[in-house]
Design brief:
Elements lengths: L5 H15 L2 H11 L17 H12 L5 E7 L5 H12 L4 E7 L11 E3 L5 E3 L9 E2 L7 H16 L1 H10 L7
Length: about 180
């Protein structure tokens, strides 16, 4: 099974859980992810490519000398879905690249570069730290809300056009 975009993948994943498991399992996962519904509604018309977004994407991609490093502080037990939404919602601006770094509160683990997510994935963090990095936190929010948080931060840093470009790439319905 494949889908395109966040607004399709979350509902389809929940429908699959419901089909394989049961409605109670799907409702429990939906609450954990912060998703209220998973029906067949999909706002496809809102994801049509717009010329100003293509121009914006091309101009931004050409400015490779202006790329910033964004650090995503993580520690053992991080929600991997929220982390992925945060990284993807931030990195698709073409203005920076996101790197996972061990959270500063993990001083007893400072020499360890790998962390285990809540689901058991192992992420190797970047040992280098910037002197004045931009830090984006996945936060303690449901996974679906992490993307909204990342897009809001992108809008604050780079403007709503850039945030709209990212949302369009992800086929994610958001209000500007």
């Amino acid at each position: 099974m494949t889908t395109t975009g966040v607004s399709a993948s979350l509902p389809v994943s929940l429908a699959l859980v419901e089909a394989i498991g049961d409605a109670d399992s799907a409702r429990a996962l939906a609450r954990e992810l912060g998703v209220s519904r998973w029906d067949q509604a999909h706002p496809s018309a809102s994801f049509q490519r717009k010329g100003f977004l293509y121009r914006s994407m091309a101009l931004t991609a050409m400015q490779c000398w202006r790329r910033e490093r964004i650090e995503l502080p993580v520690s053992d037990g991080v929600d991997e879905v929220a982390l992925a939404f945060t990284a993807d919602g931030s990195s698709r601006t073409y203005r920076f690249h996101a790197m996972a770094v061990r959270a500063e509160g993990d001083s007893d683990q400072a020499d360890k570069h790998d962390i285990a997510t809540r689901g058991g994935l192992v992420i190797v963090t970047d040992a280098r730290r910037s002197s004045a990095p931009v830090r984006v936190l996945p936060g303690n929010v449901p996974a679906a809300a992490a993307l909204d948080r990342a897009l809001t931060g992108t809008g604050v840093r780079y403007g709503d056009r850039t945030a709209s470009l990212v949302a369009l790439q992800l086929e994610y319905a958001r209000a500007p």
